[in-house]
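Q: What would this chain look like folded?
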Amino acid sequence: MSKPIVAIVGRPNVGKSTFFNKLAGRRISIVEDIPGVTRDRIHADTEWLGRSFTLIDTGGIDPHSDDQLLAQMRSQAETAMDLADVICFFTDAREGITDDDRDVANLLRRTGKPVLLIVNKVDYAGLNDSLYEFYELGLGDPIGISSVNMLGFGDLLDQIVSCFPPPDEIDTASSAKPLQLAIVGRPNVGKSSLTNRLLGENRTMVSDIPGTTRDAVDTAFTGEDGTEYNIIDTAGIRRKRAIEEESLERYSVVRSIAAIRRCDVALLLIDAQDGVTEQDTKIAGLIEEEGKAVIVIVNKWDALDKETGTLEKYRKNVLEELKFLSYAPVLFVSAKSGQRVQTILPKVCEIYQNASRRIPTGVLNDVLNDAINDFQPPIQGTRRLKVYYATQTDTKPPKFVLFVNDEKLMNFSYERYLENYFRKSFVLDGTPIRLVLREKSSKEQ
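A: My prediction, written as structure tokens:
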């Protein structure tokens, strides 16, 4: 089930990051960071009243000069508007309403999205009267909180969750009939060019349809073999005046979260001339964490000087940099010239089938026994790990439950060994595998 996205927006120093860090750092219910983000932690998964959602810290409006203010403000606010199911607009009780607040409020009022007006730094009862001023913004009842002291958090989280669409609507949106294909990557790696190539005139049907969870437009088309696809638009971030590079990277991650969650297969585009960058690693981490089938696409391959063995050497380097996607196929294309683009959709169908594969329990346990016979489980002290049997409980990605005598006896290397053995035996290229350990009671053993 796709998790709703809650975006925190507002100008600098109104307490957005403090609020985010309090939720991400304290176990309100269930809180966990998504791996893959190595420099800025801008998102965290949280649960409240049984509803899971992703909280996005948009980083605020940080202009370097007055003439860049509106461009940067609009870029960041529009990103939040575009992707969020709920927008939390932070203001400052001590400073009151500023012109920046009014500009952001004007944008948010027109989004049609649920917007919660949050007046932060209401650190004691005497500041409650300051809330009345914020009615001027025309965004409904102001909600007074203190990020530092965590005052009002429960009431705010109640209101956030009440704005989410019903769970059945989220499920319906994520299970549409066409194969959902997300093209993700850094700005300017060729996402739009590749999209246009895939939607070329040799396709039998092309139509624009509304996005299922945001206002951007997705594109449906039928492949030459009759397979129906929906390309999820992540073109997203465009330079507006002098928006700093770090801001571009931050919001490309935000856009990628929404697209990856909705997709069946992710195409991670890498610029052949740049190689794997830190930003590519972040987005790859999101794909793995969400359990999505993935193909790494090295674009602009025609722009590289090559010699014998260049392709395989490059492939090895890519998979070395993206160790946690070692199972992903790597394709080398040029969206500009069309070189090898025709290899992408057949590979998409292949790995989607792999991710959807169900292994009969009998066959699964035969392979498990072979794996154990080839390489015995580890011993800790005088105790050896025993793996009694396995069963598959889910697909997309394939999830296998292993019944063992003691979970603590399983080490990382043996778990990885079993994963690789399953992957090789059942042809599970392109999809992550989830292994879940479950102890049998002493009576069952």
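Residues 27-41, 171-176, 201-217, 236-246 have pLDDT under 50 and may be disordered.
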